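dumping this here so i dont lose it
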């Protein structure tokens, strides 16, 4: 099986897993699988300082942060004469926002109200912070490293990328606005969306 076939197969499996979880939580107010155990474990250990830190961390997965950071990345793409990179970043970010809104309206899962530590409206599944952060940060890292040959720089950059994304997802669980399955499925769909959007644009991006 070649690489493309493996990717397609894994993507189909991932989407099946997502749909299976989605069907189980559709219109639900309860956690499934490990949701309650994880939430109880974390929320029995929350502290005022931890809440304050997580509020700051969750900011990095919000539109209030994506917009200014996107504006900062814009001149880098212009300097590299990479207009397609700008389009890719916009499409990945705005597209994932739109897809997330659509999925939430389909699955209409209630947030874990018992655990809420901050005010948060809307539906819960999948996590928008997790999904859009995965698409945005991973696309941005991909673009910034496209012409980078130094292995150490690549490893460091990707490690930072996924660490930031993981912390954002954890902050949503810590603050009680998402079940763990919301976050994990947000990551899953966010990465699939990033991957296929990037592949569609890969031939147009300058090497």
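and the seq i came up w/
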């Amino acid at each position: 099986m070649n690489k493309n076939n493996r990717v397609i197969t894994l993507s189909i499996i991932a989407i099946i897993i997502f749909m299976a979880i989605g069907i189980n939580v559709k219109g639900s107010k309860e956690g499934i699988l490990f949701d309650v155990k994880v939430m109880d474990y974390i929320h029995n250990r929350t502290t005022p300082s931890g809440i304050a830190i997580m509020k700051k961390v969750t900011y990095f997965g919000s539109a209030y942060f994506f917009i200014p950071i996107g504006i900062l990345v814009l001149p880098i793409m212009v300097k590299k004469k990479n207009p397609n990179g700008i389009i890719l970043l916009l499409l990945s970010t705005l597209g994932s926002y739109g897809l997330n809104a659509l999925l939430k309206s389909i699955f209409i899962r209630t947030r874990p109200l018992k655990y809420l530590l901050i005010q948060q409206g809307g539906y819960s599944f999948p996590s928008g912070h997790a999904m859009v952060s995965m698409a945005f940060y991973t696309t941005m890292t991909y673009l910034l490293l496209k012409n980078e040959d130094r292995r150490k720089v690549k490893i460091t950059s990707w490690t930072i990328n996924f660490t930031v994304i993981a912390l954002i997802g954890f902050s949503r669980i810590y603050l009680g606005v998402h079940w763990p399955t919301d976050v994990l499925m947000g990551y899953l769909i966010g990465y699939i969306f990033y991957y296929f959007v990037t592949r569609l644009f890969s031939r147009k991006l300058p090497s």
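DSSP finds eight helices and no strands in the chain.
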